[in-house]
Amino acid sequence: MIKIPRHAAVAIFALGLVVCIRPALITAQGTPTAPEKIIIDTDIGDDVDDAFALALAVQSPELEILGVTTTFGDTEARARITDRFLGELGRAEIPVLAGKPSATKNPMSQRRYADAAHFTKPSHADALDFLLDQIRKHPGEITLIAIGPLMNVGAAIDKDPATFRKLKRVVLMGGSVRRGYGDMGYTAPVPPMPEWNILNDIPSAQKLFTSGVPLFVMPLDSTQLKLDEVKRAFLFTQGTPVTDQLTVLYHLWGQQTPTLFDPMTIAYVLRPEICPVQPLHLRIDEKGFTREEPGAPNAQVCLDSNSEDFFKFYLRRVASR
Are 24 and 246 in contact (CB under 8 A)? Predict the structure, then answer.
């Protein structure tokens, strides 16, 4: 059982949030609708926002998670972290696949989460083969949600571009179009800069932006969403399997205030009005900058989001039982 400071009750009251019932999959006309098929491509284990994104997906009956693929660095360790997270949530049936490992000096702050071997598998099938096989089985139906460096995406385009183009769409956390890191909209402007997911595999990002697949981009401009102390106290005192695992991973992460970059991709799929998009032509240059240029749009881009609406939706959904 996770111990929470006694002042958390005050924070919960201040937040004024009520846990909601999970929504039924019914349209406005009263007819059933099938869950949207998604695959999540993640570098879970470094920054903690990947786990917060996966939590939102698992808590959303509107989504059918076909699988989770891991990318960047020690992809097997990332897959084992995902194994345990899904197992603790009672969702061990969701396939977890590992991408090709890559060299990196980036520390994996949550590696120890998988060391206990709860729910973890000794090895994982290949992420690239899984991704392409699923697209072939469900042409035009799958949303690929990319929340890590784009190694698996670039490899899929290289291996079978025709199959990759049969994705329904790619929803990407990546890029910095008009605002850089630390530009929260109320400080002096910070110019665009190379964003992490793009910078760590520039060639794959370039391939994605020229692939012709419908692309929905959540860049730094709209994803610098701070999970402050009051919101953390609310989540971490709920005592559900999801919130308990997020609490453990947050403490392994070892920093204070997470920025929920990645969860905006899941939130957009579920509630697109939270992050309205506009058509732009974007180019990834050789240094990893996301350049806004004239030309036919190749992406739908969210340049501003409603953080209040995001957190109301996110906290209620993730805390629901």
Answer: no
Question: Which whole-number Å values give the CA distances from 108 to 22, 94, 169, in the listed order?
Answer: 33, 23, 29
Cβ count near 69 (within 10 Å) = 33
Report whether 55 contacts 246 (CB < 8 A).
yes
Nearest Cα neighbor of 302 from 145, 168, 175, 141 is 175
Nearest CA among 43, 76, 52, 24 for reference residue 242: 52
Cβ atoms of 228 and 307 within 8 Å: the answer is no
Strand partners, 39: 67, 144
The pLDDT of residue 106 is 84
pLDDT digits (tens, 9 = 90+) for 92-107: 999 999 999 999 988 8
Helices (H), 182-223: 196-199, 202-209, 220-223
Q: What is the pLDDT of residues 167-193, one digit of tens each?
A: 999 999 999 999 999 998 888 899 999
Q: Which amino acid is at 72?
A: F
User: Hey, what domains does the chain have and what are their CATH numbers?
Assistant: 8-319 (3.90.245.10)
